[in-house]
UniProtKB/TrEMBL annotation:
It comes from Phodopus roborovskii. The keyword tRNA-binding does not apply. This is Inositol polyphosphate 5-phosphatase K. The lineage of its organism: Eukaryota, Metazoa, Chordata, Craniata, Vertebrata. Its main location: cytoplasm. Keywords: Cytoplasm, Endoplasmic reticulum, Hydrolase, Lipid metabolism. It is found in: Cytoplasm; Endoplasmic reticulum. Inositol 5-phosphatase which acts on inositol 1,4,5-trisphosphate, inositol 1,3,4,5-tetrakisphosphate, phosphatidylinositol 4,5-bisphosphate and phosphatidylinositol 3,4,5-trisphosphate. Has 6-fold higher affinity for phosphatidylinositol 4,5-bisphosphate than for inositol 1,4,5-trisphosphate. Negatively regulates assembly of the actin cytoskeleton. Controls insulin-dependent glucose uptake among inositol 3,4,5-trisphosphate phosphatases; therefore, is the specific regulator for insulin signaling in skeletal muscle. One of its GO terms (biological process) is negative regulation of insulin receptor signaling pathway. It comes from the Eukaryota. Its EC number is 3.1.3.36, 3.1.3.56, 3.1.3.86. Residues 16-330 form the Inositol polyphosphate-related phosphatase domain.
Length: 453
């Protein structure tokens, strides 16, 4: 186990522990034609993961591809959703800028405690405006804590190290949240920053680097890694931590092989693909206090590896697996949903829900009926506008009805989710339940306009 913070851990009470798996991969325009089990650690029985964070670079970003992906889901997003949704992971947010894609998945039971604050793109490419380089960011509140996630693609080539550092600073400075009561990104509890950072190995020649890799002598190469050098010189960059590089450089490989570049250019191998994190400084707990402080947030790195089995790109993917231990600042959902199993002759299901006094509802709030195993929040089988479908209002619990005439007769389990338009997030979720088959009546129902996020 590799500790990621020096905070002394109080002995009691026990905090929540969330398993987080971070993926970064420059896919070099390749299509998702491979088994992702190793990348996502699906066969690792010792892992109990709650959140997947996936960042890709150099997705196919031609005009035709972008137009197609605007109208339909891009192939990589669909591939990840198809793989993770049967395991009860729901895509909760995504942001794309040309070839950069950032996806966040979470187990459905965590949805009421994850609020998406913002998504942002920062282009730093040609003349500072082209999106082939730069960063994409998702800012969220996780059990009351601020977390910023950044997937980046920095300038290539050995000689552009200063430019890489400049773009890193520019992406960081662009993470402002005007109009929101949100602290500066450097005051967020956690920043996860990863991607194809394109840092290279200085001074040593190609043959020395190749021989060192063959013998697994990485220590001298680390000393000349441009990111390692920059962290020794830059106080802010030094605050970003990284696990030890115990895997071979992840760039540049001949496609469909584990051989480093054999083309005429013979590019020198480098650790271009990296995962960094930064924890907000916390006051040390008093040794006389035995309980957890109100704000307690500890990240521990469990694994930092590359995946050599994937060869569709000239980069190998890199993953970091973490345990996030926290004392939740939010442990009760804003909405508590109770399916009552009461029905009318019009195929309507009566739903009772109670709201937290702090919750501010909107006429555009809606409740969706989902099959367990849903892919994303728009993957409902039926829905009801809370404002339009009210049966009773004002006294907790409130009641609304939802039409099930379009729901197929099935023994599947279902969930109800309350979506808040103001918070752009799910704020309440029911326990899984089955709809008794005797309640499926086949009457034609009027179609309401579908809710949009």
């Amino acid at each position: 186990m590799m500790s990621a913070a020096s905070l002394r851990r109080p002995s009691a009470p026990k905090a929540y522990v969330l398993g987080i798996h971070v993926v970064t991969w420059n896919v070099a325009s390749a299509a998702p034609t491979v088994d992702l089990s190793d990348l996502l650690q699906l066969n690792n029985q010792n892992l109990n993961l709650d959140i997947y964070i996936i960042g890709l670079q150099e997705m196919n970003s031609g005009i035709i591809s972008l137009l197609s992906d605007t109208a339909f889901e891009d192939p990589w997003t669909s591939f990840f959703m198809n793989t993770l949704s049967p395991l009860n992971f729901v895509k909760i947010s995504q942001v794309r800028m040309q070839g950069l894609l950032l996806l966040v998945f979470a187990k459905y039971q965590h949805l009421p405690f994850i609020q998406i604050i913002s998504t942002k793109s920062t282009p730093t490419g040609l003349y500072g405006y082209w999106g082939n380089k730069g960063g994409v960011n998702i800012c969220l509140k996780l059990y009351g804590y601020y977390v910023s996630i950044v997937n980046c693609h920095l300038p290539p080539h050995m000689s552009n190290n200063d430019q890489r550092l400049e773009h890193f600073d520019r992406i960081l400075e662009s993470q402002t949240f005007e109009g929101y009561d949100i602290p500066n990104i450097l005051d967020h509890d956690l920043i996860l920053w990863f991607g194809d950072m394109n840092f290279r190995i200085e001074d040593f020649g190609l043959l020395f680097v190749q021989e060192s890799i063959t013998k697994r002598y990485y220590r001298e190469l680390w000393e000349k890694d441009q990111l390692s050098i920059a962290k020794r010189r830059d106080p802010l960059l030094r605050e970003f931590q990284e696990g030890p590089l115990l895997f071979p450089p992840t760039y540049k490989f001949d496609r469909h092989s584990n051989n480093y570049d054999t083309s005429e250019k013979k590019r020198k191998p480098a650790w271009t693909d990296r995962i960094l994190w930064r924890l907000k400084r916390q006051p040390q707990a008093s040794p006389l206090v035995s309980s957890l402080p109100t704000s307690y947030f500890l990240l521990t790195l469990k694994s930092y590896i590359s995946h050599m089995m994937y060869s569709i790109s000239d980069h190998k993917p890199v993953t970091g697996t973490f345990n996030l231990e926290l004392n939740p600042l939010m442990s009760v959902p804003l909405i508590t949903i109770m399916p009552e199993c009461l029905w009318t002759m019009e195929n309507d299901m009566l739903i009772s829900y109670a709201s937290n006094p702090e919750f501010l509802s909107s006429p555009w709030d809606w409740i969706g009926l989902y099959k367990v195993g849903m892919r994303h929040i728009n993957d409902y089988v039926s829905y009801a506008w809370v404002g339009d479908n009210q049966v009773s209002y004002g006294n907790n619990p409130n009641q609304v009805y939802i039409n099930i005439s379009d729901v197929p007769e099935t023994e599947d389990q279902f969930l109800l989710c309350y979506y808040s338009n103001n918070l752009h997030s799910v704020v309440g979720i029911s326990q899984p339940f089955k709809i008794p088959l005797r309640f499926f009546l086949r009457d034609d129902a009027l179609c309401d306009p579908e809710p949009q996020i």
